[in-house]
């Protein structure tokens, strides 16, 4: 691990500000999901990498290339033949393949359900702010923002 020399204090709600220099370097934007890992003495966090194409967000026909998931369509557009190893060929066993496909299905279903819930809440409460929608749905305001962006982009109809 690399030391930055930056120190930040935890506030009364358990929050900590990630310095802008680090966010810029790590390409962490507002509303980006973060994931946490725990060792015996450390907490490590990084930008969450879902099991979907980093370019178009597709869950189908994924290949794994340089620590990223890319769908076959985007890989073809990029024209790099080294990317065309299907994800299921990279897992060691049939059990691992079943587990990965199960996780993909669950992720798609959960994402679709949450998009539908946000869409319904927006229709039921047309003047509601993101914070109000978040309270109604029991999710974070940043997740509401993220889903609204996807809905505006028309990704909901692809599910």
TrEMBL record:
<feature type="domain" description="SpoVT-AbrB">
    <location>
        <begin position="8"/>
        <end position="53"/>
    </location>
</feature>
<dbReference type="InterPro" id="IPR007630">
    <property type="entry name" value="RNA_pol_sigma70_r4"/>
</dbReference>
<dbReference type="GO" id="GO:0003700">
    <property type="term" value="F:DNA-binding transcription factor activity"/>
</dbReference>
<dbReference type="Pfam" id="PF04014">
    <property type="entry name" value="MazE_antitoxin"/>
</dbReference>
<feature type="region of interest" description="Disordered">
    <location>
        <begin position="92"/>
        <end position="111"/>
    </location>
</feature>
<dbReference type="GO" id="GO:0006352">
    <property type="term" value="P:DNA-templated transcription initiation"/>
</dbReference>
<dbReference type="InterPro" id="IPR052731">
    <property type="entry name" value="B_subtilis_Trans_State_Reg"/>
</dbReference>
<dbReference type="InterPro" id="IPR007159">
    <property type="entry name" value="SpoVT-AbrB_dom"/>
</dbReference>
<dbReference type="InterPro" id="IPR010982">
    <property type="entry name" value="Lambda_DNA-bd_dom_sf"/>
</dbReference>
<dbReference type="InterPro" id="IPR037914">
    <property type="entry name" value="SpoVT-AbrB_sf"/>
</dbReference>
<dbReference type="GO" id="GO:0003677">
    <property type="term" value="F:DNA binding"/>
</dbReference>
<protein>
    <recommendedName>
        <fullName>SpoVT-AbrB domain-containing protein</fullName>
    </recommendedName>
</protein>
<dbReference type="Pfam" id="PF04545">
    <property type="entry name" value="Sigma70_r4"/>
</dbReference>
